[in-house]
Design goal:
By secondary structure, this protein is mainly α. It has 16 helices and no strands. It folds into three domains: about 70 residues, no CATH class; about 190 residues, no CATH class; about 140 residues, no CATH class. It is globular and about 55 Å long.
């Protein structure tokens, strides 16, 4: 039954996507984050649904008359440089076969990012994309929150197998990143009957993050909660909501959860933490020795034998920062951090421009909440290898498009109008020829 339902949604949408390819972007976001086909048991389980929808969307982009626009902002230029640099490092990779396969996956993610950029041309489309992300990941947040409450936090909340968010840590990061987007929709949703659902969804998603039993999630929840409060308009309401969600989550969790969280303080005695630190030093040594780094999927025994402080402790790097450093060298890390910093600065620019303009309040709130999502990504990501997670690049695309719509495009229109008026205005100075 699940297979038939997912097949009906996917294949039934294809004719509409040919006419309106942006619906393909929305559907791909839903399939990419929710992965409903991975919850099936039959023929849809291994069906390449995202690829199918992507191909139909590409065809639709070529044949339809739907509005398209490419925004070449500084973030997008840096992103292109990052993609090119990753291609160069792939040619120098230690683990060349696996590196090539991983680069292919990254290219596919970035093609979808640029497709999104081309078709994301209005506020309505931005909101639809945000809704797709929130609904898809909110599904696991609500489901996981109910599961955590029902089981008393004894069992870990996990994501669907074979996806970016399969592990408890990865799912926790995605859910914490989604809570601020839920709040943005809560602030600006016109249908009042949806607001209580969004509020409940935020609380259950926070509880679900506790239920993952991820130590990185706890750090991200604390830092995100602080940033959430700083960026919110209603400090009292936000403080009450954050406090309630935090207390509710912690009151549910068993003693085992508290014991696991306390190992953050004794990381030097924790085997998992020591393994990560060993991998981080390996990344530093690789990048110091090789300007191109080790290439994708460099975390193999032969590399640890050469660069690791403890060559016998072979583990994945589990950090977005050290992942990029080890795989793409110091230049790669500088490009990656520049991309994050520029996106943050563009959010600030949007917020400054939209300040005191009621009609642009939505853009100010969205930019602020994306910054909160970025804090979740950058804090939880310090302990996870999700540098190429498409969620980040979707947020970058949204930031770039919103800034263009509310700051760049209006400024250009004003400049064009002023120039036109100057040309049309007659020169009445003394001695001027009429």
């Amino acid at each position: 039954m699940r297979d038939l339902l997912v097949a009906f949604i996917v294949f039934g949408s294809l004719p509409f996507i040919l006419k309106r390819p942006f619906w393909g972007i929305v559907l791909m976001a839903g399939l990419g984050y929710m992965n409903p086909h991975r919850l099936c048991y039959g023929f849809m389980l291994t069906m390449p649904v995202v690829m199918i929808v992507a191909l139909v969307t590409l065809i639709g982009m070529l044949v339809s008359k739907e509005a398209k626009r490419m925004v070449w902002s500084r973030e997008i230029v840096v992103l292109v440089i990052f993609i090119v640099w990753m291609g160069i490092t792939t040619t120098q990779a230690f683990n060349s076969n696996e590196a090539g396969l991983q680069y292919e996956k990254v290219i596919k993610i970035q093609i979808l990012t640029f497709m999104t950029l081309l078709l994301l041309t209005s506020r309505e489309k931005v909101n639809l994309l945000v809704w797709a992300i929130v609904f898809s990941l909110g599904f696991y947040g609500v489901k996981g929150g109910i599961f955590t409450i029902a089981k008393g936090g004894v069992h870990r909340v996990q994501g669907p197998e074979g996806t970016f968010i399969a592990g408890n840590n990865e799912l926790a990061l995605a859910m914490v990143m989604t809570i601020p987007l839920m709040y943005y929709l809560y602030l600006h949703e016109k249908h009042k009957w949806l607001k209580p659902g969004l509020m409940v969804g935020m609380i259950l998603t926070a509880i679900s993050a506790f239920g993952t039993q991820s130590r990185g999630a706890l750090v991200a929840l604390i830092l995100t909660g602080i940033m959430f409060w700083l960026k919110s308009r209603n400090k009292i309401r936000t403080a009450a909501m954050v406090a309630f969600a935090g207390l509710a989550g912690m009151s549910i969790m068993p003693e085992e959860w508290y014991a696991r969280m306390h190992t953050i303080e004794t990381y030097d005695q924790d085997q998992s933490a020591q393994g990560r630190i060993n991998s981080w030093w390996t990344a530093v040594h690789i990048a110091t020795d090789r300007i191109f780094g080790g290439g994708f999927e460099t975390w193999i025994p032969s590399v640890f034998q050469r660069y690791a402080p403890d060559p016998t402790n072979v583990r994945d790097v589990h950090s977005i920062y050290f992942e990029v450093l080890g795989e793409h060298g110091w230049p790669g890390l500088i490009i990656f951090l520049s991309l994050l910093a520029l996106t943050w600065m563009t959010c600030n620019s949007t917020m400054r421009y939209a300040k005191n303009q009621p009609e642009l309040l939505w853009a100010k709130d969205l930019a602020a909440m994306i910054q909160v999502s970025m804090v979740a990504y950058m804090s939880a990501g310090a302990f996870l290898g999700l540098a190429y997670f498409d969620y980040l690049y979707h947020l970058i695309a949204i930031v770039v498009v919103v800034h263009y719509m509310v700051v760049v495009e209006p400024s250009r229109s004003v400049g064009s109008n002023a120039a036109a008026q100057a040309v049309a205005k007659p020169d009445v100075r003394m001695g001027a020829v009429p």
